[in-house]
User: Fold this.
Amino acid sequence: MAQSADVKVLPDIQASKLKVTNTSRPLPKCEPEELGFGKVISDHMLMIQWSAAEGWNAPEIVPSGPIGLHPFSHVFHYAIECYEGMKAYKDSDGNIRMFRPEKNMERMNVSASRLCLPNFDGDELVKCIKELLRLDRDWIPQKKGYAMYLRPVMFSTTPWLGLTQCSEAMLFVLQSPVGPYFKSGYVPIKLHVDAKYIRAWPGGTGNVKFGGNYAPTVASQIAAAKAGCSQALYVYDKEEWVTEAGTMNMFFLIKSTSGTLQLFTPSLEDGCILPGITRLSVIELAKEWGTEVVEEPLPLKIVIDACEQDRCLEAFGTGTAAVLQPVGALQHNGKDYTLPEDGFAEGSFQMKMLAKLKEIQYGEIEHPWSVCIT
Amino acid sequence: MAQSADVKVLPDIQASKLKVTNTSRPLPKCEPEELGFGKVISDHMLMIQWSAAEGWNAPEIVPSGPIGLHPFSHVFHYAIECYEGMKAYKDSDGNIRMFRPEKNMERMNVSASRLCLPNFDGDELVKCIKELLRLDRDWIPQKKGYAMYLRPVMFSTTPWLGLTQCSEAMLFVLQSPVGPYFKSGYVPIKLHVDAKYIRAWPGGTGNVKFGGNYAPTVASQIAAAKAGCSQALYVYDKEEWVTEAGTMNMFFLIKSTSGTLQLFTPSLEDGCILPGITRLSVIELAKEWGTEVVEEPLPLKIVIDACEQDRCLEAFGTGTAAVLQPVGALQHNGKDYTLPEDGFAEGSFQMKMLAKLKEIQYGEIEHPWSVCIT
Assistant:
């Protein structure tokens, strides 16, 4: 009895304890056309501290400003950090809408577990995020294609150099009003199959949104640009299993040799790709539409063969930042494979999918994926 | 002509421009016995800022204190960060000695290149580090086994959410007086072969000192502890190629079936292990002593077979923090393999190696690897 009384249940995130400090120095806004992606920070950010001894502290909304940390903090040395990407949209009535936020919360907890960072109550964090959005609602652009990008990020601030389990952490939710992710708009891009660097491998961290998955890909981006391509397409092992492209999940609409239309996308089972929320939404909508979805380990050869035989009708990437990104060509072993132009024209599968996703995200149709904040 | 005049050569790190701001609030010191590893920070740190537009700014030695960064800084989100581990020793005459510092500078530049962080002149950085050590010389413990641990760390402070090449970075050199790394001293540890998580893979980042290599290993440490072991031994692929253990390189002294004594250590060629400086020093000394060094890709089976046939005489890890760590046992697929106790007793290969390294590091013998700072 005495023992069980000693077991202290540490506090989780509690939205009811949220403290708000309004900014006294509003930050400069810019025209929507000048926004680009992730350059501008809005007036306020959400900050929650955690320690192994005390659990989650009361959440705080504070003016956006520098984060000051002990120089030994684990985030600087051992990359104990994970993040999420979410968007909030303004509908034509001026309501704020989030897209499947509970999925981001689930995934962030999976990422945190892999890195031995603390877990949290996702519903409570979403409540805090809603308050943040309400406070900075004037920062959310209303134009279609524009949104408030939300960046939840958690990292270990454990202040010693030994590589140990996390004893102190911080969680932030940052806000950035954004325009369309790719400068070139919905113009198809060319992907460069990266043979030198491997993004993820079985037993690694490709299935979680871990900061360390991204740093090594800058070199691949540069290699892709040198090859005249926009992004890298990552594969692994001798079979060249397809994983991701840039920071997106990949889809290929292929006609089988017997004439069936199939939407191929790498499966989650090898743990090498991120379980994207746009990816999941595309799979679910495609199935609703009666399209056959082949969610299996995908050797690049299936794609290349289909390209050579004019059976690869469409290819596109998915992600929160880009939503849908048409792919017009692949470069593999120095050889270019060009996809048909009507694959990304009006009336194509991906353009219908993009329109549907936008309808839902901007609240043009009622849909359970769109969470309206009044 | 006009064009070449436009090519602006950006400044590199210049020790002659070093600015020193002495602390006005000295930090509390503790007894050497209470130091542990990396818990205490000394009074001063070296800080150098870099930008793509201006190159390296003048180096500054400033009082150790919090690092304040824009919340969008790439280090928090995409783990664009690399570090080094070095030690400075005080010899019996009170001189400060560094161990092969030029090797750390070379490796840090390789790490930086892989992450598309800026390179720098290592000789100039070493000059700045020497000034830092001189300033905080009272912090360096003189007792054998103790040292000033130096932590150079560089990260991208690029302040936007797009994953791009680095436009702003900071380099710090932090100082921490340390005692012996492993609490248990030179007591052998037991390694747990981790079958679930893979530390590194060809085409990945195992060969550079990238923060992202370390975060995912905390889970392996916990799994090792649960299995009654001290550290994880990382292998990859079906052949179970040996890579590293904990944060150390690995060595196995094995008697061949024909009776030859061979020192096995995984080679660098697959890019899956860090080119350790203690590792290199052990290889070079072993060769000097006439020991046959087998530096090749090492399948775990070679080690397990040798253990089963009582031919694995010794095993040890190497690293800057630990220097040499005796290994007394391995656990693989639930089975324990115990190494002979005289393998880590006085007179063993590894104890002679450790004594030799310490003689050099503490300046008990003159050796070109020990750089004396007067």
In short: Residues 201 and 272 of chain A are 6 Å apart (CA to CA). The two ends of chain A are 47 Å apart (CA to CA). Chain A has a mean pLDDT of 95.
